[in-house]
Amino acid sequence: MSAAAFRLGHVTLGGSFSSRNPHFERERAIAVYDLLEKNTFIPAGHDGGPYRLSLALAGAQLALHISTEAGAHVMSHFLSLAPFRRLLKDYILSCESFYDAMPGASPARFEAIDMGRRAIHNDAAEVLRERLAAKVLVDKDTARRLFTLIYVLLMRRSPIALSSSESQGAGPRHQLPRRGLITKDHSR
C-alpha cells in the first residue's frame, strides 16, 4: 500500500459545531482544512486507508474513532487528557493574549506573543505524538493540527466551577476541573 493510503480523508468533531467565539470556529476550520490537505496517519496493524477520524470528548478522555473511508471500523482509542492540562492552560492564555494583541500591539510585541504560542503548540503536539505512538503514528504537522482540534473541542465546553484549590491562580476566566478538562468563561 502506498504512503498516500496512510492519511486522513475525513475528520469530524463530536458535539455542536456552533461556538459563541468566532476564533474557535476559525481555528477549527483552518485545522481541518490543513489536516485534510496534508497529513500522515498510520493506525498500528492496519493495511491502509484513507481513514475517517471522529474526535470527541468522553469524560476526561479524548475519544478517537477511526474507520476506513468505506466506514469499516479500524479502532477506537481513548486518550487521557491529564498530560495536556498544563500545556492547554498555557495555550489558552497565549491564544487570548494573541487575539487581544491583534488590534493594536506593536509588531515586536505581536511577534513575541505569537512565538510563545507556537512554542506551546509545538510542545503539545510532541506530547500528543508520544501519547498516540503505540496506536497511531502521526507526523509533526498532523499532531499540531490534531492538537488544535482538541483545543477547540475543549473550549466549546460549558464553564465548570472548581470547588478545590486547583482554581487558585487560574483566574476568573479559566478553570481546570479535576477531571482534566479545560473550560472557559465566555462572559467577559
Characteristics of this structure?
188 residues; alpha+beta; 4-stranded mixed β-sheet; 4 helices; elongated; disordered C terminus
Task: Please give a structural write-up.
This protein has one domain. It contains four helices and eight strands. With 188 residues, it is of the alpha+beta class. 27% of the residues are buried. 40% of the residues lie in helices and 21% in strands. The protein starts with 7 loop residues before the first strand and ends with a strand. A four-stranded mixed sheet has the order 1-3-4-5, with helices on one face. This is UPF0262 family protein. It holds the Pfam family UPF0262. Keywords: Plasmid.
Short description:
The chain is of the alpha+beta class and 188 residues long. It has helices spanning 22-37, 85-101, 107-132, 140-155; strands spanning 8-13, 41-43, 51-58, 61-68, 73-80, 136-138, 174-175, 183-184.
DSSP summary: helix tally: 4
Beginning-to-end CA distance, first to last residue = 51 Å
> Which sheet architecture does the biggest sheet show?
4 strands, mixed
Query: What's the number of structural domains?
Result: 1
Q: List the uncertain runs.
A: 158-188
User: Whole-number average pLDDT?
Assistant: 79
Q: Which structural class matches the secondary elements? A: alpha+beta
C-alpha Rg (nearest Å): 17 Å
User: What is the 3D form?
Assistant: elongated
Strand content: 15-25%
Strand arrangement within the widest β-sheet reads 1-3-4-5
> What is the total tally of β strands?
8
Helix-strand string: EHEEEEHHEHEE
The percent of residues in helical segments reads 25-40%
Organism: Sinorhizobium mexicanum
Protein name: UPF0262 family protein
Keywords: Plasmid
Pfam family, one: UPF0262
